[in-house]
Fold:
Amino acid sequence: MAHRGSLDVLVVGSGASGLSAAVSAARHRITVAVATKTSLQANNSSKAQGGIQAAVGHDDSPAVHAEDVLRSSHGTADPDLVAVLTGEAEEAIAWLEGLGVAFTRENGSYRLARCGGASRRRLLQVGDRTGHAITKALRDAYAATDGTALEHHDLVALAPHGAGWRATFGTPAGAVDVDAACVVLAAGGRCYAEAEARGELSTNHPNATGEVTRVAIAAGAAARDLDALQYHPTGGAWPASMQGYSIPETTRAYGAVLLNADGEEFTDSLGPRDEVAQAIVDEVAAGRGVEVSDGRPAVWLDTTRISEADAAVSLPYMLRRYRGAGIDPLTEKITTYPVLHYQNGGLVIDTDARTSLDGVYACGEIAGGTHGRNRMMGNSLLECVVFGRRAGRTAAEAAAA
Ligand SMILES: Cc1cc2nc3c(=O)[nH]c(=O)nc-3n(C[C@H](O)[C@H](O)[C@H](O)COP(=O)(O)OP(=O)(O)OC[C@H]3O[C@@H](n4cnc5c(N)ncnc54)[C@H](O)[C@@H]3O)c2cc1C
Structure:
């Protein structure tokens, strides 16, 4: 078995949460490595389109943001984690801007959209490639540190070792052990694997398979709400090349509405995700859906109500995808059906991202509690940055102590 020596902080996963942790830890002048299953670029974070929430509007506040999170979670989110998420949102945005993320502005102010379940407009966007912009800036920031990257390292086991932890990875060259004083688990959720097992579609990257959660639980970590998986209400239904594509919630923020086969609105298109997804399933079950060419069920999303101007600024990627597939969403309605999207639950953490295992931290989609059993759109990227930074800082301080 190969052995790579000892580190202060080992981060597992190279999405927005892992990179936020790694950049923060590496600023403490300690040894840091990011290990990731395939390449640094391969993750769900890069696929995120719609945006990131932060209460920066004049009519908004962290307290109002927190109320929206708690209401959308139906009271199941952890209020302490929600207070940190919403209270540090503005600082997280400033930190990202300092790393070079240029959020879309109009007339000097942020262009803010209202997302499902929100009582205010608070979704900041970078066009409709927000996750791409954030992860690119984080990768560049990490590359400028002394931290190292261990690509094609697939975590398969974690065990106490001396005063720290030993992580065992599968690699193309065989098994490799890496020892670290502290380990940050940032390996995302499991919706790709779950969809495969159920024979369903998923929006997720193929690396979203969830084994790191199982590894942590096997090592003794506590978890919560693991059964609470989120369906994105508006997955692409047709053409076939758009199946599994998450039609951004910002389509609905900018005027698109859900319609049944009779052209009737049957739900609040900007309600909480679980309610909108359930309403679509119920409408189809009641015989008021439409069927796409391969027989899959769907309803209409009337995207013709979106203005050219809004689409040009906030939905250019979505337009390119659909037009490339032969449909212009600004002149014809598109079909949609819920698709497996997000793992709401995960490893139990405290407000500094500590798991129940001493020296092991968790952040991002792998962690539970922040969204309870139903996440609002735009709060996952925020969670990645807020709790990623906290995990990196707390792990670095613990390793240096
Ligand atoms: C299509 C899409 C659109 C979305 N849009 C939005 C949005 O607009 N706003 C929003 O807030 N959220 C959005 N989300 C959700 C959000 O992007 C993700 O929940 C979040 O980015 C997860 O980040 P993460 O760092 O926790 O995990 P990921 O970004 O998934 O990264 C996980 C990392 O862990 C690695 N990994 C996995 N297993 C192992 C292993 N065994 N060993 C080593 N490494 C491993 C992976 O390769 C990857 O690098 C969207 C998600 C998708 C899929």
Q: What stands out?
A: The radius of gyration is 21 Å. The first strand starts at residue 2 and ends at 12. The CA atoms of residues 210 and 250 lie 28 Å apart.
